[in-house]
Specification:
By secondary structure, the protein is α+β, with helices and mostly antiparallel strands. It folds into three domains: 245 residues, Bira Bifunctional Protein, Domain 2 (BirA Bifunctional Protein, domain 2); 129 residues, YbaK/aminoacyl-tRNA synthetase-associated domain (YbaK protein); 88 residues, Rossmann fold, CATH 3.40.50. It has 15 helices and 31 strands. Strands 3, 7, 8, 9, 10, 11, 12, 23 and 26 form a nine-stranded mixed beta sheet that branches. Strands 14, 15, 16, 17, 18, 19, 20 and 21 form an eight-stranded mixed beta sheet that branches. A five-stranded mixed beta sheet has the order 28-27-29-30-31, sandwiched between helices. β27, α12 and β28 form a beta-alpha-beta unit. α2 packs across α11.
């Protein structure tokens, strides 16, 4: 391909909303253009790269025994009503009506449609297991679309769904997909971690995320170097050690206008971890008192998963006062009889703590669970943090930022049960399918490569398996016929060898050529400059190592095997 004939509309300036490197490079380098908030057009370079990523995904999904299909973007609302997700998915679900006033959704994911396909077409255990996947456009009405194609309202996703006859077989399918994902991200030369995660609105009992290491990542991961444990911050647990000590007598203390943990701790000369923080929360099952150690914050995702809840919101000041008989800031578990009390696991074994006394300007001292108040359930409902002890081995947890590019789930029977998706087992009895689902953000993966491989000083590097071209030939002096002929000859020789090179034969400033070459990021940049005219050797930049070498034509061709 000749650079002068290829549509790569580079630009010098980037919009103010381009906050991260991938968004900036994709705008400057002519990869994408914005159509509306969270909606982008992929230009030729980005589309070439995305198609290569898709083909790598296909290769490993097919090798794992999955079959590619293509489901409709529009999904009848009735299917979503069967599972209940139409009502609970939230505002991210794009709902539309057709001309006959029938309700549809633009699919953010396709559990309902694929379950409907399988329940209508697979009737016997002999046809199991089956795993179906697609690579397709998805829609989620993000409240704040940002970061270019990293978090858009319209995006490309690979989603797969497995159907098995038993929980054990479902885990086998899950492990096959786990291996396929590791193979995909390894082939893409990404540095990533596989971490435990919350299942969220998708549901299911087990899930893992694949996180690309990047300082710009929105997700925080806690990991243990000692045992390898790693989890998303919304899932990560920690091990707590509260020292044993003799119980002291319950006492009251006046704490006028001291409402926050920090104020109470300073006033009483106590550490925050010796204070019980009481949160009055409203759920679909009624009000709950959620107890946390003073140095902890409520993790609503963990709490919902642990307590089997769909929604947790903080009670209003009026609701708090009605339940506790005290203003906000003085709530505590002692004497709180009318609502269930749930305590975070960090409070197990905590002795002689301080807590609100359910009286204005008053706190209790030497509060002890079971003696002074009853805990209905201990559950992991708080955020773990860097420096905590690993829940697996007790080693120290460290944090890093990551970009979620893949997510795999063991779904169980959440969808098959609600949609009555059944098959006949070997005894002729009806059974419910056990399912799994597996997603990869294709465009997000492309952006993640930029986040990890771009260097401000050295430019972009695309791994050879997904690079837009195998090599870029730069003819620096296009007025020199010998240089132009040599560049064209090398270009034709590469094409004849089955390679996909691009030649920049434009008669423009050399600085512009190098700058645009750094944005394009092919694995090899081959320069025909003054040194070539003197020695007949090409200056070759290997972008993976950023090593520059002078090479003959034969040595250049040997780079490609």
């Amino acid at each position: 391909m000749k650079r002068s004939h290829f549509f790569i509309p580079t630009q010098k300036e980037v919009p103010q909303d381009a906050e991260i490197v991938s968004h900036q490079i994709m705008i400057k380098g002519g990869y994408i253009r914005k159509t509306a908030a969270g909606i982008y057009t992929l230009l030729p370079i980005a589309l070439k790269i995305q198609k290569k990523i898709e083909n790598i995904i296909r290769k490993h999904m097919n090798a794992a025994g999955a079959y590619e299909i293509y489901m409709p973007v529009l999904s009848p609302a009735e299917l979503w009503m069967e599972t209940g997700r139409y009502q609970i998915y939230g505002k991210e679900l794009m709902r539309i009506k057709d001309r006959h006033d029938r309700d549809f959704v633009l699919g953010p994911t396709h559990e309902e449609i694929v379950t409907d396909i399988v329940r209508k077409n697979i009737k016997s255990y002999k046809e199991l297991p089956v795993c179906l996947y697609q690579i397709q456009t998805k829609f989620r009405d993000e409240v704040r679309p940002r970061f270019g194609i990293m978090r858009g309202r319209e995006f490309t996703m690979k989603d797969a769904y497995s159907f098995d006859a038993s929980p054990e077989k479902a885990v086998e399918s899950y492990l096959k997909m786990e291996k396929a994902y590791n193979d995909i991200f390894s082939e893409l030369e990404l540095e990533y971690s596989e971490v435990e995660a919350q299942s969220g609105p998708i549901g299911g009992s087990t899930s893992k995320e694949f996180m690309v290491h990047a300082s710009s990542g929105e997700d925080k991961i806690l990991s243990c170097a000692r045992c390898g444990y790693a989890a998303n911050i919304e899932k990560a647990g920690a091990k707590y050690d509260n020292p044993d000590e003799p119980l002291k007598e319950l006492a009251e203390a006046e704490t006028r206008d001291k409402k926050s943990v920090e104020d109470v701790a300073a006033f009483m000369n106590m550490k925050p971890e010796k204070i019980i923080k009481t949160i009055i929360a409203k759920t679909e099952k009624g009000f709950r008192a959620l107890l946390l150690r003073g140095d902890r914050e409520l993790n609503t995702e963990k709490a919902k998963a642990a307590l089997g809840l769909l929604e947790i919101v903080f009670a209003t000041e009026a609701e708090i006062e009605k339940i506790t008989k005290a203003p906000q800031g003085f709530s505590g578990p002692v004497g709180l009889e009318d609502i269930p009390v749930i305590a975070d696991v960090s409070l197990q074994g905590l002795r002689n703590a301080a807590a609100g006394a359910n009286k204005k300007d008053m706190h209790f001292l030497n509060v002890n669970a079971e003696r002074d108040f009853r805990v209905e359930e201990y559950a992991d409902i708080a955020f773990a943090k860097e420096g905590d002890a690993c829940v697996k081995c007790g080693g120290e947890l460290r944090s890093f930022s990551g970009i979620e590019v893949g997510h795999i789930f063991v779904l169980g029977t959440k969808y098959s049960k609600s949609m009555s998706a059944r098959f006949l087992d070997e005894n002729g009895k009806e059974q419910i399918y056990h399912m799994g689902c597996y997603g990869i953000g294709v465009g997000r993966t492309m952006a993640s490569v930029i986040e990890q491989k771009y260097s401000q000083d050295k430019g972009m590097y695309w791994p050879s398996c997904i690079a837009p071209f195998d090599a870029e030939i730069l003819v620096m002096n296009c007025k020199n016929e010998d240089a132009v002929k040599a560049g064209q000859a090398l270009y034709e020789k590469m094409k004849a060898a089955g390679l996909d090179p691009v030649i920049d034969e434009r008669n423009i400033n050399a600085g512009i050529k190098f700058a645009e070459s750094d944005l394009l990021g092919t694995p090899f940049r081959i320069v025909l400059g003054n040194r070539f005219l003197e020695t007949g050797k090409y200056e070759v930049l290997k972008r993976k190592t950023f090593e520059k070498t002078e090479m003959t034509e034969e040595e250049v061709m040997a780079l490609f095997g």
